[in-house]
Amino acid sequence: MNLTLNIALVIPRSGSAGIYGPSCEACAELAVAEANAHYGVLGREMRLIPVDGSRPPSVVAAEIARLVESGAIDAVTGWHISPVRQAIAQVTAGRVPYVYGPLYEGGEHTAGVFLTGETPSRQLLPAMDWMTSEYGIDRWIVIGNDYIFPRGTGLAAARHARAQGSPLVGQLYVPLGTEDFTEAIRQVETREATGVVVLLVGGDGVAFNRQFAATGMDTAIPRLSPHVEENMLMASGSRANTGLFSAAGYFEALNTTASMEFAARYYSRFGQGAPALNSIGESCYEALALLIALASRARSLSVDALTLAAEDLRYVSPRGEVTMRGNQMSQDVYVAEAVDLDFQVRARISAA
Fold first, then answer.
1. What is the pLDDT of residue 209?
2. How far apart are CA 227 and CA 239, in angstroms?
3. pLDDT on residue 352
4. Which of the residues 126, 144, 211, 284 has an alpha carbon 20 to 30 A from that of 223?
C-alpha cells in the first residue's frame, strides 16, 4: 500500500482570483501538518500536489485526469471558480473523492463531489434580508463576473427579491479581468439602486470598490459581496471599504472558541507576516478537514464508502459545529461589515 495520501490542491496562482492563492495554500498546509502530526489519514501521511487553478477549465481538468489515471493522486480539493469545478468533476466522477471548498451557486450532485462552501439560500439571500431590515434597501442591483457562479447566484437573488416585493433594478455581468467599471457604476446611479450585490472575483472586486468609492456613492449606497475578504480589503485600501459588507461561514474576527483557536494555530505556524486569514483561505482548511472526517468515519477512500459516511456526519471545525446534509456541508453563516482593513461581525444570519 502507498504510505502517502496524495491530494491535488487546485488553487489560483494568477488572474482575478490570484489574490486568494497564498491564503489558500497556507491554510491547506496547516490542515495537512496537523493531520500528519496525528499519524495522517488511515495511517498514511498526507501530501499536497499543487495544481494551478487559474488556467482554462479544460487545461486544469486535463492535468487532474492525468494525475488520476497515473495513480499520482488519491483525492482533489482546493479553491477555484465554478467552471473549473465542473470540468474537474467530469474527470473525477466516481473515481476519487473531490472536496470543493468555495462558496458556489448550489446544485452540484456529481458522484464523489463533497462541498463545504456556502450557497445563496443560506448566505447571500439571508444577508440581503438582513441589510434590507437594517438599512431599508429596496432597490438592489447585481454586478458580477460573467460565469456560472455570479449568474446562478444573481438568478437566485432576482427570484428572492421579486418574492419579497422589491424586484432587482438591474443585473450586469462583465468578463473576468475587467478593469474599468465606469458603465457598471453608471448603472447603479441611473437605476437609482439603494444597494449593490457585488459578485466580482478578487482583483475585479478590488477595482470596482476603488472606483465606486471614488464617486462618493460608497457613503450612501451599501455594497454586499460574498467574495470580499481581508486580502481584498487591504488591496482596496481603507477609503474604499466604507459601506462594504460580506457574508460567510468564517471570519477571522469571529469571536468563537473554534475560530480563535484556529487563528492561534495559524499564526503560531506561519508568524504574524502570514498571508491574511480569511473565509476563502479557511475554506481550503475546511475542505481538507471534511476529507479527513469522511475518511476516518468510512475507514476508506472509496467514493461509495465516503458517500455513506457523509450521512449526518457532524464535527467541529473553525466554523463551529458543522453537519453534512447529503454531499453539502451545513454551517452557521454570518454577515460582517468592513471597518478600515478588517471586518466586524454584525449578526448570524443562518444556523447549521
1. 97
2. 19
3. 82
4. 284
Cell numbers given for 281: 483561505
Q: Cell triple for residue 154?
A: 444573481
- As a whole number of Å, the CA-based R_g of the chain is 20
Name the average pLDDT for the chain.
Answer: 97
Q: What is the pLDDT of residues 100-115, one digit of tens each?
A: 999 999 999 999 999 9
Say if residues 50 and 9 touch (Cβ distance below 8 Å): yes
Q: What is the pLDDT of residues 192-243, one digit of tens each?
A: 999 999 999 999 999 999 999 999 999 999 999 999 999 999 999 999 999 9
Domains annotated on the chain, with CATH? 4-118+255-331 (3.40.50.2300), 121-250+334-350 (3.40.50.2300)
Enter the pTM of the model. Answer: 0.95
Grid coordinates representing 167 are 424586484
pLDDT at 1: 59
| Pair type for strands 314-317 and 320-325 | antiparallel
Do the bridges between strand 333-339 and strand 244-248 make them parallel or antiparallel, or are there none, so unpaired? antiparallel
Quick one: 220 exposed, middle or buried, by C-beta within 10 A (0-12, 13-18, 19+)?
exposed
Give me 343's grid cell.
Answer: 471586518
With DSSP H G I counted as helix, E B as strand and the rest as coil, what are the percentages for the chain, rounded to 5? 40, 25, 35
Please provide residue 5's backbone torsions phi and psi, each rounded to the nearest 5 degrees: -100, 105
- Residues 45 and 50: their CA atoms lie apart, in Å, by 16
Cell of 74: 488519491
Residue 247 contacts residue 216 (beta carbons within 8 Å): no
Q: What angle do CA 153, 171, 233 make, to 5 degrees?
A: 70
Report which residue type is found at 223. Answer: R
Beta bridge partners of 325: 328
Distance in angstroms (rounded) separating the CA atoms of residues 55 and 14: 8
- β-sheet with 113-115: strand ranges across: 45-52, 4-11, 75-78, 98-100, 113-115, 328-330, 320-325, 314-317
**Tens of pLDDT, residues 120-163:** 999 999 999 999 999 999 999 999 999 999 999 999 999 999 99
| Cell reading at 139 | 432597490
